[in-house]
Design brief:
With 360 residues, the chain is an alpha/beta fold. It has helices spanning 20-32, 46-58, 68-73, 75-83, 97-105, 113-126, 139-158, 174-188, 206-209, 252-259, 270-284, 290-309, 327-334, 345-352, and strands spanning 4-9, 37-42, 61-67, 87-91, 130-132, 165-169, 195-201, 211-216, 225-230, 264-268, 314-319. The strands form 3 sheets. A 5-stranded parallel β-sheet has the order 1-11-6-7-10, with helices on both faces. A 4-stranded parallel β-sheet has the order 4-3-2-5, with helices on both faces. The protein has a two-stranded antiparallel ribbon with strand order 8-9. Helix 2 (46-58) runs parallel beside helix 4 and helix 7 packs across helix 8 (174-188). The structure holds pyridoxal-5'-phosphate. Pyridoxal-5'-phosphate is lined by residues 17, 19, 46-47, 136, 169-175, 244-245, 289, 291-292, 320-321.
């Protein structure tokens, strides 16, 4: 017996990530409902790209607020969205009340998913025939993404492979929630036991350093509260290259599972993530997304532990997407210019102190 690593690849579509699984479902229901269009936010651009594709299939208008740092760092991603007919605005923008307010309070901000959500919600609620759709965090998104876990389980069952450890990167928690869905079901029913590990960036450590509390899902505090692991809706993460993981909160379902001790979480540093990404590219040929490479890092680390202890384990991880639009990040890594920004306890406490007060 040797340690084996398997991965489920979700990057074989033009949008380059697992996000298309939910985008198609959400565009389909929007069309059924007779809507004209949808608004959304995008961080690194994968969700916006996926939704643009899905909207073009169904003849829906698509307005995307893109986190400013990504809008500037990823012009190609932006043009893919426009190719599929979406309009793309850098966030925070002067187009919305909430955008103007955020810019007045934080001039020169590079934006965050939370800010972009607030802007997209404002446009949807003030434009007839439009709704806001979200590409992660919410329960219906995890439900759409459970196709990842179902396919993974079917493939493993076919070859008689039973994983010991299941690993996924966690931004809002949708790919991980989807990947673990059937396995967590078995675990909850006491049929089988698995170690499940969520991997997040050290620069945005919602699980590992956040608080389990009711919080706003967006920086503008216009969305309903959710009980989740959060760094506070005012937390604006450092401009890490894994844009899809720069979110202050976490899926409520995953938060509950983590709080119940049914899964683990760890954070990893950006340079260690890119080292793993490069190793993976050389061994497997696929150029991984920086987000996905968080899971690769943890899978390699777990395999190395097995090597030390002499135990053989079967490891499965979610390879959520490709990194072709992240070459600026790879360039920084190769040039030795990549930074590992880790927030201080005081910084995190400052935004946690502003959590909304909720009666128990
Ligand atoms: C958006 C994204 C993620 C993180 O989002 P989750 O909702 O946590 O899955 C991870 N990987 C890629 C490639 C992404 O685009």
């Amino acid at each position: 017996m040797t340690t084996e690593i398997y991965y489920k690849f979700e990057g074989n579509n033009t949008s380059g990530s697992h996000k298309l699984n939910s985008a198609i479902a959400q565009a389909y229901y929007a069309k059924q409902q007779g809507l004209k269009g949808v608004t959304t936010e995008t961080g690194a651009g994968q969700w916006g790209t996926a939704l643009s594709m899905a909207c073009s299939y169904f003849g829906l208008d698509c307005k995307v607020f893109m986190v400013k740092i990504s809008y500037e760092q990823k012009p190609f991603r932006r043009e893919v969205m426009r190719t599929y007919g979406a309009s793309v605005t850098p966030s925070p923008s002067m187009e919305t009340n909430v955008g103007r307010k955020i810019l007045a309070e934080h001039p020169g901000t590079t934006g965050s998913l939370g800010c972009a959500i607030s802007e997209a919600v404002e446009v949807a609620t003030s434009t007839p025939g439009y709704r806001y759709v979200l590409g992660s965090v919410l329960n219906q998104v995890l439900l759409h993404q459970s196709v990842i876990g179902l396919e993974t389980k079917a493939a493993l069952d076919k070859y008689g492979v039973v994983p010991d450890i299941i690993i996924g990167c966690a931004g809002g928690g949708s790919n991980l929630g989807g990947l673990i869905a059937p396995f967590m079901g078995e675990k909850l029913r006491g049929e089988r036991d698995y170690r499940i590990i969520a991997v997040e960036p050290a620069s945005c450590p919602s699980f590992t350093r956040g608080k389990y509390a009711y919080d706003f899902c967006d920086t503008g505090m216009v969305c309903p509260l959710a009980k989740m692991y959060t760094l506070g809706s005012g937390f604006i993460p450092a401009p890490n290259h894994a844009g899809g993981l720069r979110y202050h909160g976490m899926s409520s379902i995953l938060s509950q599972l983590y709080d119940d001790g049914l899964m683990e979480a760890r954070s990893v540093r950006q340079t260690d993530v890119f080292e793993a990404a490069e190793m993976f590219a050389r061994v497997e040929g696929i150029l991984p997304a920086p987000e996905s490479s968080h899971a690769i890092r943890a899978a390699i680390d777990e395999a190395l532990k097995c090597k030390e202890t002499g135990e053989a384990k079967t490891i499965v991880f979610g390879l959520t997407g490709t990194g072709y639009f992240d070459m600026v990040a790879y360039e920084k890594f190769h040039e030795g210019q990549m930074e590992n920004y880790i927030p201080t306890d005081a910084e995190i406490q400052a935004t946690l102190d502003k959590l909304p007060r909720v009666d128990a």
